[in-house]
């Protein structure tokens, strides 16, 4: 007991000594605290102020990759991601701020991302995560899933306050298939009938389908006939043929069973039954006719009737004639013309420039066609309708004045009649139809006048030409043509080099009959004029036109039909090669190999290649010839659609009374959609920054100095022969012809008093292109190569009037080919005007400039997408030596200023300590001095645009790489307690 009391007393003594010591230390701390109370309160208030200004512990957002690719097995839920899911935070290894607390899954394009998938954190310190589905996935239901994911850190404390989120990353998940379904036949029973005594390549085709989603398990690898000892065989595509001639007397009906296997060796759930009936009688006619024929653009020539043959049932014939008709008139005027307009086709064919369009699109400059009704055309050219009465186009005198001379080429597209044209209402003389005038013109030739008119009458085309209305005799050139009265589109080219006249109809030359008209023909009035669709009444009592009105002019010979592309080119006549190119048919009927044509066989193809006629006397040779009739299409981008086919057969026998009569066969050719070209515009950054005085110069600033245009074709390539599964997409760069580009200012239109877009007109005129320059857009049109359009677009400049510079202006560039059938990507350019160079001399900007010149490779990553001034071309950035000198001087100035401030701070602190001053508001507190240099500053920071204005609640956030931690810096100087922070 005594020992315990002594121990307790010792403990109490020890405790008393500790208490005394603690009291002494607390008293000492209280003394120190009282001495620096003011300084501590100031420091606490400053710390609180810093926190209020945003200086929290959690400074950075988490970072994840921008895109992930994932794979998950069907009926499973764990997703394997590539790359693995890791979230990084620059605040690591700080507790909470540098840890990842969770991931959040957002909806993808399908709208089901948050319902089917979730993401969990495996390790908060490393940021490792795992993506899994909430329930097993079904490949047949949906094979691919897309959603976005976001990482969140733990904030500034355990309660997750001020937690920051990363940008949204896209996750693509593909569900791998499992072979869980077996093939199923489309039909349980297949029936076919064939005549006896012959072998067929295909009697019937069976088809099975598999519900698996992957090509490996959904494709049918092979079929099999499970009934033994049947005279039939089946290939891997399900085509059944007979292996021996069938005899209806021996067995009239053949019944057997077939099965199918997918590529995973799963057998069909139920076998299919095939019933083949053998027909005993012979029916004459064409065997193997396929009503539908498909053509893939770029296939060259394909046979139309590869399995077609004529069955005469042993009837003796001595002459066979078959006519194959391909209808392409509904696609365009004549042949498919690559969907280019007439003007573009002329340029592509190398026609001599200088033609005058007599029926131009209505516009303020060409208003003489505004009253004519128009019809739509597949090749985007205008088709004008003439009703035979009051539809007349009067060409103005200034246009007619440029067409003088007796050497000219007149070209036009013509179609007599037309479904949308009302019958003519003009009176006729008795029962005889009047001539219908297409073009009627009187032009001045120096001191004389010449007159000509092109007319149609029935199935005749005539050119009435009067070289001198005052002296010479008129001459009429006459052609009798079926093309004039067949109500189809035809291309006419009339080359007049008097007294020689050459007519091309659809590219074929026709010789005229020359007639000297000595009848009583009143002389045309010696007045320059030109009418389209009619001619004026040659009556001397008729009143002359007054004030350019045509109400007092009587018309005769009004035209009834359609016209398009009516042009006249004065001077030398058009070469024959150009005329042939203008009407060159690039699709039509053809014959495979004339050398294999049997004896006695004849082949004839019309000029438009729409009708092919075969004639022969031997059935076997005729069948071989029919199988070599091909469809040819050399267009790069064939117009898709249906082309009706007809086969008409005429037989002549020794016994005409019992000769066979075959009905006309009708089918159609389907041209599939061609591979669309990708027109890519690149080489122009989204931003163009230049000092404002450069835009106010006489030449302005080039908008697209480094523009690149690339056209490519993406097409499917079969890689099975190379041991690869499925197919692949390959892209081939090809030589294309563009037909238009447009530069458009975004937002408000250009103000012609302050700004304008300039184009090098010499380049435009040299290439023969057309340009429309308005305040809303600049349109450059004409069929030309990519290099020509690059040169023209690179010459586009933007110029401002003095003092008109704003802060920015945006433009959009796009191009097209095939009259807008294929368009490019839209290239948007933002033009920024640098109004002052003073901030280039600030120390922080000098340091940034130094980094720009000393480390150009490191700086290129930051400025990708921006077009800054080129130092070799009117640059606003000083030379390298000047920049280095300015950097040194600026840095020295900064260091001197900082030194002076620090000396003053020390001096004032000493005075405050001696004088016991408690007011620290006027002192320089170097504890808050922070100097952070940003060597990777973009031009936005030079313009005073802060990069930290991004709100935490924004929907779209920019991906931030962890390697760029040192780049988010600036020079910040904070002065005193009440001094506002200065950002340089």
Spatial shape:
flat
**CATH architecture descriptor name of the domain at 342-418 and 434-537 and 554-583:** Sandwich
Total helix count? 15
Strands, total number: 61
The radius of gyration over CA amounts to 44 Å
Oligomer: single chain
CATH class of the domain at 342-418 and 434-537 and 554-583: Mainly Beta
Which percent range fits the helix content? 10-25%
Describe the model.
The model is unreliable at 1-40, 46-55, 419-431, 541-551, 716-734, 839-879 and 912-984 (pLDDT under 50). Among the domains are: 67-176, Cadherins (Immunoglobulin-like), CATH 2.60.40.60; 184-279, Sandwich (Immunoglobulin-like); 285-330 and 586-671, Immunoglobulin-like (Sandwich); 342-418 and 434-537 and 554-583, Sandwich (Jelly Rolls); 677-712 and 735-834, Sandwich (Immunoglobulin-like). Helix 12 (843-854) packs antiparallel against helix 14 (880-915). The strands form 15 sheets. Strands 22, 23, 24, 26, 31, 32, 33 and 38 form an 8-stranded antiparallel sheet that branches. It is built from 15 helices and 61 strands. The protein is flat and about 125 Å long. By secondary structure, it is of the alpha+beta class.
Summarize the SSE layout with pairings.
Layout: H1 2-35, H2 37-52, E1 67-73, E2 80-82, E3 100-106, H3 113-116, E4 117-123, E5 128-133, E6 144-153, E7 169-176, E8 184-185, E9 189-195, E10 204-205, E11 208-209, H4 215-218, E12 220-225, E13 232-234, E14 239-242, E15 253-262, E16 272-279, E17 285-287, E18 292-295, E19 301-303, E20 309-311, E21 317-326, H5 342-348, E22 356-357, E23 374-375, E24 383-387, E25 393-395, H6 397-401, E26 407-416, E27 436-445, E28 448-457, E29 460-466, E30 475-480, E31 490-497, E32 500-505, E33 508-510, E34 513-516, E35 529-532, E36 535-536, E37 555-556, E38 560-570, H7 576-582, E39 587-591, E40 602-605, E41 611-616, H8 619-626, E42 629-633, E43 641-653, E44 665-671, E45 677-682, E46 687-691, H9 692-695, E47 701-702, E48 708-718, E49 727-733, E50 737-745, E51 755-758, H10 761-767, E52 770-773, E53 778-785, H11 786-794, E54 797-800, E55 808-817, E56 822-823, E57 827-834, H12 843-854, H13 856-862, E58 866-867, H14 880-915, E59 930-931, H15 939-942, E60 971-973, E61 982-983
Parallel strand pairs: 1-7, 9-16, 18-44, 46-57, 46-58
Antiparallel strand pairs: 1-2, 3-6, 4-5, 6-7, 8-11, 10-14, 12-15, 13-14, 15-16, 17-20, 19-42, 21-41, 21-43, 22-38, 23-24, 24-38, 25-35, 26-31, 26-38, 27-28, 27-35, 28-29, 29-30, 30-34, 31-32, 32-33, 36-37, 39-42, 40-41, 43-44, 45-48, 47-54, 48-49, 50-53, 50-55, 51-54, 52-53, 55-56, 55-57, 59-60, ...
Helix pairs in contact: 12-14
């Amino acid at each position: 007991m005594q020992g315990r009391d002594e121990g307790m007393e010792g403990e109490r003594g020890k405790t008393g000594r500790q208490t005394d010591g603690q009291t002494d230390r607390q008293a000492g701390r209280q003394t120190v605290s009282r001495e620096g109370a003011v300084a501590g309160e100031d420091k606490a208030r400053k710390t609180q102020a810093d926190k209020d200004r945003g200086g929290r512990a959690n400074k950075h957002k988490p970072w994840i990759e921008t895109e992930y690719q994932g794979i998950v097995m069907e009926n499973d839920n764990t997703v394997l991601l590539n790359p693995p899911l890791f979230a990084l935070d620059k605040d690591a290894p700080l507790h909470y701020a540098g840890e990842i607390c969770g991931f959040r899954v957002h909806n993808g394009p399908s709208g089901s991302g948050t319902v089917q998938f979730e993401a969990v954190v495996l390790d908060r310190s490393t940021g490792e995560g795992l993506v899994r589905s909430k329930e097993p996935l079904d490949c047949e239901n949906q094979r691919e899933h897309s959603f976005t994911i976001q990482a969140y850190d733990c904030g500034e404390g355990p309660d997750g306050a001020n937690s920051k989120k990363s940008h949204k990353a896209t996750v693509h998940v593909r569900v791998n298939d499992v072979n869980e379904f077996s093939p199923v036949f489309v039909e349980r029973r297949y029936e076919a009938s064939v005549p006896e005594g012959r072998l067929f390549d295909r009697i019937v085709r069976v088809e099975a389908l598999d519900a698996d989603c992957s090509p490996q398990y959904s494709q049918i690898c092979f079929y099999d006939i499970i009934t033994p000892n049947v005279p039939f065989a089946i290939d891997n595509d399900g085509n059944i043929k007979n292996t021996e001639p069938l005899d209806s007397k021996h067995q009239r009906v053949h019944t057997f069973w077939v099965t199918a296997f997918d590529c995973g060796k799963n057998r069909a759930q139920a076998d299919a039954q095939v019933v083949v009936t053998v027909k005993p009688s012979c029916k004459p006619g064409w065997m193997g006719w396929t009503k539908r024929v498909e053509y893939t653009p770029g296939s060259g020539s394909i046979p139309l009737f590869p399995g077609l043959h004529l069955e005469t049932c042993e009837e003796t014939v001595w002459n066979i004639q078959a006519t194959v008709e391909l209808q392409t008139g509904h696609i365009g005027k004549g042949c498919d013309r690559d969907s280019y307009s007439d003007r573009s086709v002329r340029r592509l064919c190398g026609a001599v420039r200088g033609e005058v369009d007599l029926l131009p699109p209505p516009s303020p400059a060409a208003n003489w066609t505004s009253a004519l009704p128009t019809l739509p055309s597949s090749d985007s050219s205008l088709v004008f309708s003439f009703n035979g009465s009051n539809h007349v186009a009067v060409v103005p005198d200034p246009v007619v004045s440029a067409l003088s001379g007796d050497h000219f080429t007149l070209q036009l597209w013509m179609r007599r009649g037309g479904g949308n044209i009302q019958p003519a209402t003009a009176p006729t003389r008795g029962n005889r139809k009047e001539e219908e005038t297409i073009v009627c013109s009187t032009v001045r030739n120096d001191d004389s006048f010449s007159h000509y008119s092109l007319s149609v009458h029935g199935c005749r085309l005539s050119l009435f030409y009067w070289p001198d209305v005052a002296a010479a005799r008129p001459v009429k050139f006459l052609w009798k043509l079926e093309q004039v009265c067949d109500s189809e589109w035809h291309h006419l080219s009339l080359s007049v080099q008097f007294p020689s006249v050459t007519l091309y109809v659809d590219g074929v030359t026709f010789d005229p009959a020359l007639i000297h008209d000595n009848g009583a023909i009143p002389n045309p009035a010696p007045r320059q004029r030109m009418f389209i669709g009619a001619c004026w009444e040659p009556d001397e009592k008729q009143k002359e036109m007054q004030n350019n009105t045509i109400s007092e002019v009587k018309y005769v010979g009004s035209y009834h039909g359609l016209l398009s592309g009516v042009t006249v080119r004065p001077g030398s006549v058009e070469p024959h090669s150009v005329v042939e190119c203008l009407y060159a048919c690039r699709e039509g009927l053809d014959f495979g190999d004339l050398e294999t044509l049997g004896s006695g066989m004849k082949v004839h193809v019309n000029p438009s290649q729409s009708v092919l006629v075969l004639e022969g006397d031997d059935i076997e040779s005729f069948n071989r010839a029919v199988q070599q009739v091909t469809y040819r299409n050399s267009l790069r981008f064939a117009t898709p659609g249906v082309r009706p086919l007809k086969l008409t057969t005429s037989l002549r026998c020794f016994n005409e009374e019992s000769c066979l009569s075959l009905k006309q066969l009708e089918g159609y050719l389907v041209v599939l959609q061609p591979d669309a070209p990708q027109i890519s515009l690149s080489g122009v950054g989204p931003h163009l920054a230049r000092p404002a005085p450069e835009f106010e110069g006489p030449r302005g600033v080039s908008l697209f100095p480094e523009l690149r245009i690339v056209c490519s074709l993406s097409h499917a390539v079969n890689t099975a022969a190379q041991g690869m599964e499925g197919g692949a997409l390959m892209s081939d760069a090809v030589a294309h012809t563009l037909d238009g580009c447009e530069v458009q200012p975004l937002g408000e239109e250009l103000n012609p008093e302050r700004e304008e877009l300039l184009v090098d007109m010499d380049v435009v005129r040299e290439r023969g292109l057309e340009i429309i320059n308005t305040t809303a857009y600049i349109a450059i049109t004409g069929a030309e190569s990519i290099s020509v359009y690059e040169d023209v677009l690179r010459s586009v400049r933007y110029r401002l009037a003095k003092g008109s510079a704003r802060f920015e202006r945006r433009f959009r560039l796009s191009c097209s080919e095939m009259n807008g059938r294929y368009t490019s990507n839209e290239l948007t350019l933002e033009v920024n005007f640098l109004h002052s160079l003073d901030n280039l001399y600030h120390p922080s900007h000098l340091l940034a400039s130094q980094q720009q010149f000393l480390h150009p490779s490191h700086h290129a990553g930051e400025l990708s997408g921006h077009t800054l001034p080129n130092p070799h071309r009117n640059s606003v950035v000083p030379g390298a030596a000047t920049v280095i000198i300015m950097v040194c001087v600026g840095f020295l100035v900064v260091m001197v200023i900082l030194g002076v401030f620090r000396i003053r701070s020390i001096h004032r602190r000493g005075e405050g300590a001696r004088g016991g001053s408690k007011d620290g508001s006027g002192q320089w507190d170097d504890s808050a001095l922070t100097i952070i240099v940003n060597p990777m500053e973009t031009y936005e920071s030079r313009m005073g645009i802060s990069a930290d204005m991004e709100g935490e609640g924004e929907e779209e956030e920019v991906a931030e790489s962890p390697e760029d931690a040192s780049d988010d810096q600036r020079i910040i100087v904070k002065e005193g307690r009440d001094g506002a922070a200065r950002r340089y």
